[in-house]
Amino acid sequence: MKLGIVGLPNVGKSTLFNALTRLSAEIANFPFTTIEPNKGIVPLEDERLLDLAKLIPHEKLTFTTVEFVDIAGLVKGASKGEGLGNKFLSHVREVDGIVHVVRCFEDENVSHVSGKVDPVCDADTINTELALADLEYLDKAVQKVDKAIKGGDKKALPEKAMIDRMKEALNSGRPVRSLSFDGHEKELLKSYFLLTLKPVLYVANVGELVTRKLSELKEKAVSESAGVVEIHSKMEKELNDLSAEEALEFRKDLGISEAGLKKLVRAAHELLGLLTFFTVKEPEIRAWSVPKGTKAPEAAGKIHSDMQRGFICAETVNWSDLKKIGSWAEARKSGSLRIEGKEYIIADGDVIQFRFAV
C-alpha cells in the first residue's frame, strides 16, 4: 500500500521523504522543486520480529514495508489547475492514504508561500483544495447517475442519495471519510476516486524554533479523528549520516526515547488499518501486513495464491505466548498451538504456519 506525502511548498516534504527512505530527492528553497513523484519503500522495524529471531533458527529476516510517495507541493487554486494542480492531484488519487506535512517551525531563511507560519491555515488550504476537487468529481458523477434514473433505472436512486450526502458534507467543510456507509454504498465507492475519503495523518514538521500554534494543529487533528505525529525532519535526515550507535547516543542526550521516523512509519501503517502477522517457516522469519478483519485463507493468499486456494488450516500462537514458551517446537509439543479454520480472523501479532494442499 502507498502513502502520499502532501502539503504546501517548502514545508519539508522532500526532507521528510529523504529521511524516511535514505534517498536523495532534490530539496531547494523555492516552490515546485518536486515535479514527478519520488517513491521509496520503508521497512516497519518491529521489535516482535526481532524477538522471534532470537527464538527460531533462520537465515533471513524480512520486515513488512510501507511505500511513501513524495508528491509536489499543492497551492491554493490547485483544484482549478494552479501550480500544476491537476497533475499533482492526480498523483494524490493514486495513493491509499495521505501523510499531510504541515510546517511548524520558524526559520527566516526558509520562505513560506503565504509569508507566515500558521499550521491550521496551511492544513485548511490543502484540505479545501482536496474538497473542491472532490466536488468537481461528484458533479460529473451525478450527471451519469441522473441520466440512468431518467432512463428508468431505479437501482441508481441509492447512488444518487449517496452522492448528495457526500456533496452536502463537503459543502459544509467535512471530508467524505467523516461519513458512514452501508455495505452496498461501500461497494459503490470502490469505483470512486475521492481525495477526502482517504485516511489522513498530519505530520507536524518541527525545528529548533517551534511555532506556538502547534497546539492548534493537534486540536484540529482530534476534531477530524486524524492522527498527528511531531517530527524534526531536518534532524532525522542528519541523523541518517551517523552510525546507529551515534544516533542513539545523540537522541539520549536530547531525551528522545524513540526515533521520530520509526514512530511515523508505525503510525502510517496503522493509518491504513493494517495489522501484522508473522510466519516462521525456515529459512525465513517474515512479517506480513493485512487489513484488519482479514480471514485466514486471505492472509495465506498474501503469501501465495496456491495457499489460499488449497487452504486447510492455520496453526497459530500469539508472539507473546511463543516468547514465553521459547520455541515453535515446544509450542507444538505443549499443545499451545491453536488450529484455526477458514473463518478465523487474523489477530495482530499472530505467528502462523499455514497448511494447504493443491
Number of helices: 14
User: What is the gyration radius calculated from CA atoms?
Assistant: 23 Å
How far is the N terminus from the C terminus? 29 Å
Element-level helix/strand string: EHEHEEHEHHHEHEHHHEEHHEHHEE
Strand line-up across the major sheet: 2-4-1-5-6-7
Spans of at least 5 consecutive residues whose pLDDT stays below 50 are 25-34
Number of E-state strands:
12
* Largest sheet entry: 6 strands, mixed
Taken as a percent bin, the fraction of beta residues is 15-25%
Q: For the residues shown, what is the average pLDDT?
A: 86
Percent of residues in helices: 40-55%
Approximate shape: flat
Class from secondary-structure proportions: alpha/beta
Label this structure with key terms.
alpha/beta, flat, about 350 residues, single chain, 6-stranded mixed beta sheet, 12 strands
